[in-house]
Write a structure and sequence with these properties.
The protein has 8 helices and 17 strands. It has 326 residues and is an alpha+beta fold. Strand 9, helix 5 and strand 10 form a beta-alpha-beta unit. The structure holds pyridoxal-5'-phosphate.
Length: 326
């Protein structure tokens, strides 16, 4: 079933327009707010109306786990892998979304269905919730679950990706795994956000943080890859197990390119033949400058380009896809 696709509105001050997503009974606000549909407090609402309490520790303590899966041309990409990771993250953080696997899947489907979006950024999250009045005991918190589908988000716009981006290597260490397990996707973004400010001040597009030994870790929303002598290496140990990173590993296997998890020093990345990033929110992103060093003559490298092209070509072919029944 086709539904009306909501459009982004005309910005603040413009008359509020409502595009009714007919069959779903949801109106999507388009007065400059993000369009899309959320599931919050057990109900489907326009994303601009989704709310959590200021007393929720998900907000007050950054005590949240989440996942982000994308929909491309009407199909979820690697939906079950994202649900696996979300359930694992919940277990590691002692959070209970209160929904079984089947229900989680259905909520995500329904958010996309009601939004009518063909290319979407779909987030699901479980927060610690609110403790009993006057209590600081996390065991008294009632965990909450929310999800939403909004138009696809690019951490780097595709036209910017074509030229390759300028990555800043920050000396800010990523919060160590002994403190916060990076494999449970979490809201501890204080270090990553500091890094983003630093990147902007230094004229870069985005930033990669280091581990406590000064080796490359990960960045705000992406894993990092070094290409040297035709082999691809990506850091492990202090990073999220990116679903796109796993996808890159599969693509490298298909292309007959060597791939390994290992240590990537900052200097070896600056001096690499090529470098790229991977993220649900943008795919395979070529890096052509690291700090003041130009890579692969300032154009996306040949191996990066092969991996990136194959990533999008296989998307178009429905690879790892779960179609949305709109
Ligand atoms: C800290 C961090 N590392 C890596 C990634 C990449 O993971 P994925 O490929 O699953 O999007 C993300 C995604 O948001 C992230 O937040």
């Amino acid at each position: 079933m086709e539904t009306n696709r909501p459009h982004i509105g005309q910005g603040n001050g413009a008359p509020r327009q409502e595009f009714s997503v007919a069959e779903a009974g949801v109106s999507v606000a388009t007065n400059g707010e993000e369009s899309g549909v959320a599931f919050c407090d057990g109900r489907y609402v326009p994303v601009a109306e989704a709310r959590i309490s200021v007393l929720d520790w998900g907000f007050a303590r950054n005590d949240t786990t989440y996942d982000v899966v994308h929909v491309w041309k009407g199909s979820f990409f690697r939906l079950e892998d994202h649900l696996d990771r979300f359930e694992r993250s919940c277990g590691l953080m002692r959070l209970d979304p209160g929904l079984e696997r089947e229900a989680l899947r259905e909520v995500l489907m329904e958010c996309v269905r009601r939004s009518g979006l063909r290319d979407a950024y779909v987030k699901l999250a479980c927060t610690r919730g609110q403790p009993a009045p006057g209590s600081r005991d996390p065991r008294t918190c009632r965990n909450t679950f929310f999800a939403f589908a909004i138009p696809f988000v690019w951490i780097i716009p595709p036209e910017r990706q074509e030229r390759g981006i300028h990555l800043i290597l920050s000396s800010i260490p990523r919060i160590p795994p002994a403190s916060v397990d990076p494999t449970a996707k979490n809201f501890h973004w204080g270090d990553l956000n500091r890094g983003l400010f630093e990147a902007q001040e230094r004229g870069g597009d985005t930033v990669a943080l280091s581990d406590l030994d000064g080796n490359v870790s990960e960045g705000p929303g992406f894993n990092v890859f070094r290409v040297q002598g035709g082999r691809v290496t990506t850091p492990e140990g202090t990073v999220l197990g990116g679903i796109t990173r796993r996808t890159v590993e599969e693509l490298c296997a298909e292309l007959g390119v060597g791939f390994e998890y290992g240590t990537v020093s900052a200097d070896s990345l600056r001096e690499a033949d090529e470098a790229f990033l991977s993220s649900t929110a943008g795919g395979v992103i070529p890096v052509t400058r690291i700090d003041d060093r130009i890579l692969s003559n300032g154009a996306p490298g040949p191996l990066t380009t092969r991996v990136r092209d194959l990533y999008w070509r296989k998307h178009d072919e429905g690879w790892h896809g779960t179609p949305v029944d709109y």
